[in-house]
Amino acid sequence: MAKKIKEVCDFGESFGKLDIRVGRIIEAELETATPKRTYKMTVDFGAYGVKVSYGRFTRHPLEDVKDRLVLGVLNLGEKSMGPVVSEVLILGIQYPGGDSGEATFVSPAADCRIGSRLF
Questions:
Q1: Phi-psi domain of 58 (left: phi exceeds 0; alpha: psi -120 through 50; beta: other)
Q2: What sign does the CA torsion over 1, 13, 92, 108 have?
Q3: pLDDT score at 107
Q4: 52 — phi, psi (to 5°)?
Q5: What kind and span of H or E run contains 41?
Q6: What is the rounded end-to-end Cα distance, in angstroms, of the chain?
Q7: CA distance 99 to 95
Q8: Cα–Cα distances in Å, from 115 out to 9, 61, 118?
Q9: Alpha helices, DSSP H only, in 1-119?
């Protein structure tokens, strides 16, 4: 039997308000100032600028993170993670067998143009 899904909502009042775009991680390093193991990622969104994001994608080796295409939500505003501030939310899914909050990337299956919009 299928599990229940969340209540149906209006596209324009929910998902349609999010500006989700393809970016390329151009720099990645381990951030030591956050409460939990975190990567600091500098992400190029083309015409939409270069943004810094902090995320718990640490099950991926740093060399596999750099140059990866990712999906980022550009219009959620900044979010504090301890002493650092993330400018963009990089979308992820719970890493299989990982601790709560450890993530793997949501990425395009093809080499898309950075700045492309998710629809």
A1: alpha
A2: positive
A3: 96
A4: -105, 135
A5: strand 38-44
A6: 29
A7: 8
A8: 27, 25, 9
A9: 62-65
**Distance (Å, whole) CA 64 – CA 34:** 21
Q: Which two tokens stand for residue 78?
A: 């900044």
Structure tokens that stand for 37 in this block: 């193991």
Contact 38, 92 (CB under 8 A): no
Q: Are strands 69-73 and 84-86 parallel, antiparallel or unpaired?
A: unpaired
pLDDT tens, per residue, the chain with 119 residues: 888 999 999 888 888 999 999 999 999 999 999 989 999 999 999 999 999 999 999 999 999 999 999 999 999 999 998 899 999 999 999 999 988 889 999 999 999 999 999 99
Tokens of 110: 């093809």
The C-alpha atoms of residue 28 and residue 24 are separated, in whole angstroms, by 11
